[in-house]
Amino acid sequence: MLGELGRAIPADMPRYALKIEYDGGPFAGWQRQKDQPSVQGAIEAALARLERDLPAIAAAGRTDAGVHALGQVAHCDMGKDWAPFRLMEALNYHLKPAPVAVVACAPVADDFHARFSARERRYLFRLVSRRAPLVHDRGQAWRVGHALDLAAMQAGAARLIGRHDFTTFRSLQCQAESPVKTLDALDVEALPYPGGGTEYRFHVRARSFLHNQVRSFVGTLERVGAGAWSPDDVSAALEARDRAACGPVSPPGGLYLERVGYPTDPFA
């Protein structure tokens, strides 16, 4: 059995899956950083308070700076057997005051891998249309001060469903071997926003995503909703296979890793 860094892990180390929520605002992203706070670093520091010299943990997705999670999944290898509830409680105690919480913990087989065993990932993006600035949701949603057309955005989203070369909608720094991905769903819903305005929620589902793909989708579809683009423009941007053809990239604060799916739910 190998750890995240390719280091051999003794076969008798029990493995646990962790379901994790976090506010990405204070962090430079999921991935451990030398000189900046990260979610991975916070969890590994909490684990080190329980047992020394544990292998690095691995996650289903390496979210960027400012991106949140409702259902990130990671796995860790422990030196001794822990009751899952006790491990969850101990980690949450040592994570304080960081805005990170382990909401579920379960023992898993040695061959379970949070990233490589995943079969789908679901992201949520929150966009609020209202004139006034956000107060309670500042950093938790993207606010625009103009009205948006839900039907137009959904029509534009439909142009992206399926298997495509998504070069237009990935960051120039994306390290994926291929820009070809299958997008299974991109649905937009509108809800009344407390205090006035409308919240638009973008529900996005695929087996895997390119770097900045979801934020590129949402920024482009916002232009459609505002009337600056048409659904045909979305198709043209996709077919261009050129990053310069993408609409603006939405800010990270509205994006949440909502759920990770596995052949068998480890937390069921």
Automatic annotation (TrEMBL):
<dbReference type="InterPro" id="IPR020095">
    <property type="entry name" value="PsdUridine_synth_TruA_C"/>
</dbReference>
<feature type="domain" description="Pseudouridine synthase I TruA alpha/beta">
    <location>
        <begin position="21"/>
        <end position="116"/>
    </location>
</feature>
<feature type="binding site">
    <location>
        <position position="123"/>
    </location>
    <ligand>
        <name>substrate</name>
    </ligand>
</feature>
<feature type="domain" description="Pseudouridine synthase I TruA alpha/beta">
    <location>
        <begin position="157"/>
        <end position="263"/>
    </location>
</feature>
<comment type="similarity">
    <text>Belongs to the tRNA pseudouridine synthase TruA family.</text>
</comment>
<dbReference type="InterPro" id="IPR020103">
    <property type="entry name" value="PsdUridine_synth_cat_dom_sf"/>
</dbReference>
<keyword id="KW-0413">Isomerase</keyword>
<dbReference type="Pfam" id="PF01416">
    <property type="entry name" value="PseudoU_synth_1"/>
</dbReference>
<feature type="active site" description="Nucleophile">
    <location>
        <position position="64"/>
    </location>
</feature>
<dbReference type="InterPro" id="IPR020094">
    <property type="entry name" value="TruA/RsuA/RluB/E/F_N"/>
</dbReference>
<comment type="function">
    <text>Formation of pseudouridine at positions 38, 39 and 40 in the anticodon stem and loop of transfer RNAs.</text>
</comment>
<dbReference type="InterPro" id="IPR020097">
    <property type="entry name" value="PsdUridine_synth_TruA_a/b_dom"/>
</dbReference>
<comment type="subunit">
    <text>Homodimer.</text>
</comment>
<protein>
    <recommendedName>
        <fullName>tRNA pseudouridine synthase A</fullName>
        <ecNumber>5.4.99.12</ecNumber>
    </recommendedName>
</protein>
<keyword id="KW-0819">tRNA processing</keyword>
<dbReference type="InterPro" id="IPR001406">
    <property type="entry name" value="PsdUridine_synth_TruA"/>
</dbReference>
